[in-house]
Amino acid sequence: MPYTAFPMVFFAYSRSGKCTGTSFVDSTTIDVCDNHRIQQHKVFKNIAQRGKSSTGWFYGFKLHISINDCGEILNFCFTCGNKDDRNPEVMEHLTKNIFGKLFADKGYISKKLASQLQKNGIQLITKQKKNSKTKSLMELSDKILLRKRAVIESVNDFLKNICQIEHSRHRSCCNFVVNLVSGIAAYSFLPKKPSIQPWNNAIPCRIL
Q1: Computed from CA positions of residues 195, 198, 202, 204, in that sequence, does the dihedral angle turn out positive or negative?
Q2: Residue 58's pLDDT is what?
Q3: What is the pLDDT of residue 135?
C-alpha cells in the first residue's frame, strides 16, 4: 500500500469535476477512534488532534471538499482535527480553478476570507448570523441555492457510508491515506451523485 499512495492521489485528482460557476464547500470529521480510547490510541499519536464540530468533540482529522452543482468533487484536502475551516492555505487549495459563487455554512463567515476570495473572482455566500449588525440583501436565486447547500452534506454521507472512508481499524498512516483517497476516487465512479440541476426559469433549481 505505501507504493500506491502517491499514484492514488494523482488518480483521484484526475477524476475531479469541472467548475460550473456554482460551487459548495464544507468539511467533515474523520474519527480515528472513540473519544474514550484517545489515551490508548497509538497509530496516530502526535498526528491526529482533538477538534470540535457541530456534533461535538472528536479525535482525528478533517476532510475538506469543494463540489459543483452536479455533486462532483472539485478539490479536497486533509487536515488535523483542530484546523479552522477558514484557514487561508486550506481555502486556497479548495478554491483552485473555481470561479463564480461559492456557498458555505456559517463556519466560513469571515470578512478577510470573503475579500480574499473576491480578489480571485469568487463570491462567498453564507447565511448571516442572527446577531449580525450589518445584514446585506441577498438575491432570491442565491437564497434558494443556499438552502440547497445540504447537497454537500449528502456527498459527505456518500463518502462515509458508501465509499467507507472512515473506520477505526487503521494500522498505519499510509493505510489511512490510501483508504481515504481510494474512497474519493471510488465516489467519482458512482452513477448517481447528489446534485442540483435547473429545470425551468420559474424555480431556479431543485435537488435530486
Answers
A1: positive
A2: 93
A3: 58
Strands 206-207 and 73-80: unpaired
Closest CA to 176 of 77, 49, 43, 84: 43
Asked if residues 165 and 150 have their Cβ atoms less than 8 Å apart, the reply is no
| Residue ranges in the chain modelled with pLDDT below 50 | 199-208
In order, the DSSP letters of 128-192 are: PPTT-SSPPP--HHHHHHHHGGGHHHHHHHHHHHTS----S---SHHHHHHHHHHHHHHHTT-SS
Partner residues linked to 76 by β-bridges: 65
The predicted structure's pLDDT at residue 130? 67
CA 1 to centroid of chain Cα atoms: 25
Nearest to 18 by CA among 74, 69, 77, 64: 74
